[in-house]
Design a protein that fits this description.
The protein is mainly β. The chain has three helices and 22 strands. The chain is globular, with a radius of gyration of 24 Å.
Length: 386
Amino acid sequence: MKNLYTIMCMLIIAGYAQAQPHVFTASTAPQNPVGIDTVYGTVPSTIPAIPDGQWHSWDLSNVALAGYQYYAEFSTASGFANATHANKAYIEASPTVKYETNLMFAIKNDGIKTYGERLDRQPFSIGAQTGNMADSLVIEKQDVTYSTPQIQMPFPCTMGTKWNATSKSTTNLRITVTNLFLTNAPAERKTITKSTSEVIGWGSLNIKRLDGKKSGTKPVLLVKTTISVQDSLFINGSAPPAALLMQAGITQGETRYVYQKSFYRQFEMLPMCNVTYTDSNFTTIKDVNMHAQRLPYPDNIGEVAAGMIDIYPNPSTGLFTIKLPEVNDNSWSYTITDMTGKAIEHATITSTAQRVDVSNKAASGNYIISLEHDGAAISAQKITIK
């Protein structure tokens, strides 16, 4: 009887421990996010409803993969107050302007925070809108500091954790519109970004890998986020003429909204799955993307650690070596693409020190080399050909 009582107590304790909500802290955050990861799209109509839930198992392994992928590039950073890393991203400021920026962030004991943006000079033609192909809008090279940081996740973070942030920023521009007598006139884009987030679920998640197979499970927190971005444009310190706003398709003070549910796993910057909705009720799915790297196999055997894969020399003349710990079948391959996603070469890896020669195929510049195992992306990094 005593043994039976002991066994029952152990089962109760084990069940209680298993049912404790996940808690994410600085010790389970990404330790030094550097490199290039792959994010791939899915067909929204194949995504099932995503309920809130505690100790819930979400299965998104039966979705249909879409035909697009993009890369998230992380690097260390210096010279920007409070920030230690950068994440290259693309921002749609208006229907005619989509620009590249580096989101400057840091991972600290109290959370992951974005402190601003680092921008290179980027010119855009607005002649299609104004009727004069010489007209332009130029984003100047600059660091844009947020008045208060945006928070991706506070620590500790667990079921029911809520957070919000309101940030103001100013981006310096130059604008030329000939028929309004504006020539390289100084301008400012003033932005107010508001975000509210809450952990609405915890449990485990399976997704579809790039090879079409079901991934193993990962413990996740499900975070619901609403973001609003309000933009206003000022030229020579004043609101622009209504004619210019109309020509450029801009509404002064317009506010855009983003509604997302994100599944975060430990030690990763990118959500394992990110779902964007069209409405504030989170009912109509607009877009779904998934994070390809470091997904477990269905038996939960992890991927080859990134540190066990080496590509050298880099930079190179187009002749380099891929080094792997072992190659015991034809299940490994590599793909080299340019920065637009155009494939340069794809081949099977047959040696632990595979020699690659693309010197006659690739011009000088930056490229992405992706390593695949059974068709699934394992690692991706930037290589430079001189």
